[in-house]
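Researcher: I'm preparing a figure for a lab meeting and need a structural model of a single chain. I don't have an experimental structure, so a prediction will have to do for now. The sequence is pasted below. Please return the structure as tokens so I can convert it later.
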Amino acid sequence: MRTIWMLAWLAAAAPLQAQVYPAKPVRVVVPYAAGGFSDLTGRIVAERVARILGQPLVIEARPGAGGRIGADQIAKAPNDGYSLLYTTNGTHTFMTVTEKDLPYDAIRDFTPITLVGDYGLQMVIHPGVPAKTVAEFIDYVKKNPGKVNYASSGMGSGIHFAGELFNVLAHVDMVHVPYKGAGPAIQDVIAGVCQVTFDGAAKQYIDSGKVRFLGTTSARRDPRFPETPTLGEGGVSGFDLTYWTAFFAPAGLDPKIQAQLNAALNAALADETVKRRLGEMGLVAAGGTPQALERRIRGDIETLRRIAADAKLQLH
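Model: Understood. Here is the structure written out token by token.
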């Protein structure tokens, strides 16, 4: 009789045990090259979230095609909470505006989790370029049409968008050279293969003199370099692009797991050490609800479509 009771108890307990999340490591795909802004900030957040959840968050770089390869991989992954995407708005707003044949839908194919933070890209140039200000750089490019290359993290990426918007608003002709991520892109600027890029993790190279910082893409100056103007202040009237990073899961994620991940991420982003480390990279920690993240995506897509139309950007 006791054996029968124990078997019945175990049978009843099994479904409850199966519902425990997470019961194993969680894979987090970063759709850009290792060593870039997304990879580095993702590791900072993942380290703290792992301690909260009690399971490792394993960062996995899947670069290529400006981020669409890694994003598409998660869009098609099982929606069990063990495959997440940590990405920038490059894959979710810029590509929605710039790419005609995107293999995923930024709203339909993902479950939003949490906005991690906002940041501005740093426009940096090779020290050999004879320009100390944005105005001097514009003059240099105009005197060398078609000879100044700007490196991006891929076709249709946020950096590509920034470069083409700069071309239009500054009335210059920089040549686009796409890479598999921001990391390889800035390395080729350091090497002198390309002359300029827009990067979110360039501080170490600015500090060491390997690149020269001309201005930030957002309307707010980079707090780590308060003396350096924004591109708008530097003479490119109307230039204002703010970027962000966020966590997503495949569409159809269990709302309970979505809520658990959101709570863990918000707790991590409220941690003073995490905020400080992200701030040192220029990322202002945000957090918030999944619903707010979805509203942000929809609103940004509308804004970017208007910018692209007004500036007559040709990204294809």
